[in-house]
Amino acid sequence: MAKYLLLKHYRGAPAPVTSRRPRTPCRTRWSRRSASGRPTRPGTRRAGWSPWPGTGSSTRPGRTPPAAGGLTTRQIARAYLVPEATMAQRISRAKRTVSGVRFDQPGDVATVLRVLYLVFNEGYSGDVDLAAEAIRLTRQLAAAIDHPEVAGLLALMLLHHARRATRTAPDGSLVPLAEQDRRRWDTGSIAEGVKILQAVLARDRLGEFQAQAAIAALHADAPTAEETDWVQIVEWYDELARLTDSPVVRLNRAVAVGEADGPRAGLAALAALDDSLPRHAAVAAYLHERDGDLTTAARRYAEAAQKASNLAERDYLTRQAARLDARRCR
Questions:
Q1: Model pTM?
Q2: Hey, where are the domains in the chain?
Q3: pLDDT digits (tens, 9 = 90+) for 284-326
Q4: At what angle do helices 263-271 and 247-261 cross, to 10 degrees?
C-alpha cells in the first residue's frame, strides 16, 4: 500500500519518533481555537442543519429532523453515555424549549458536526446508507462554509468508511482492525481523506475531529498492523484528550499506550478510568491477554460479551473468551 501520509511533516503535528520510547520532549503546540470557532458565513440555513441555542448539546441531536438523522432516543443516549430514560427526559425538555422555533434559523456548527458524527457512527456499525448519507451531508456542509472542523470530520468519515468492506467476514462476524485485509481498503477514499486532512492541519487550528482523523490516517498509513506508529498515535490521543476530556478517548488511549509501551502500561492507564465505560471490559481483556494473564482475559472477554451493544460484537467477544478457555485447558 502506498504511503499516503506522514503527519510528522506537517506544521503542528507530533515530531517524528524513531524509538518506541521516550517520546520527543520538543513539540509544537497546537492552537485550539477551532474547537468552538464560528464559520465564516453566518451559520447553516438549510432545513435539518439547525441545532438551536437554548438547549444543551446532548439534547440537540434529538431535535434533528429525520431527513438529517433519524436517530432514536436509545442511539443518542448510547452516544452520550447516559440511560435512555435520562435522554428521553432531556429531549422532552428541549422540545418544550424550542417549540415554535423555525428549522431554517442559523445554528451552531459544532453541534451540527456532532449530529453528523452520531449519524455516521450508527451507519458505521450497521447501516451503510446512514454512513453514506452522513458523508453526503458533511460534503454539503464543507462546500457551504469554510470551517476547519467540518473538513476534519469529512476526512475522518472518509478514512473510516474506506475500511467498511473489511470490517466483517462473509458470515457477518466482526473482523478487528489488526486482522483486516488492508489490500481491500478503499484507497481512493483514503487518498481523499488524507488530502483534506493535510490541508486542514496546515491551517494550525486543531480541533477534535482533525485529531481523530489524524489517528485514523496513521492507521491507514501502516502497510501492516505491526508497522502502526503507536507512539505517534498516543501523542494524538493526548491532544484529543486535552481537547475533549472524554472518558472514551482516554479508554482508546489506554489501548494505544498498551501497544506503544506494553500491556502493563496500558493496564495502568486503564486503571484510572471508570470500569462502567462501554467496552472497558473488552479493553481490559485484550491487555490482560497481551500480558499473558489468560484466566483474567477470558473472564473479562465473557463479561464484555454480556455488555456488548450489538450481536456481531457479542459473538466476537464470546469467541475470544472460548479461545482463551481452550488454550488454558490444553
A1: 0.74
A2: 241-330
A3: 999 999 999 999 999 999 999 999 988 889 999 999 999 999 9
A4: 160
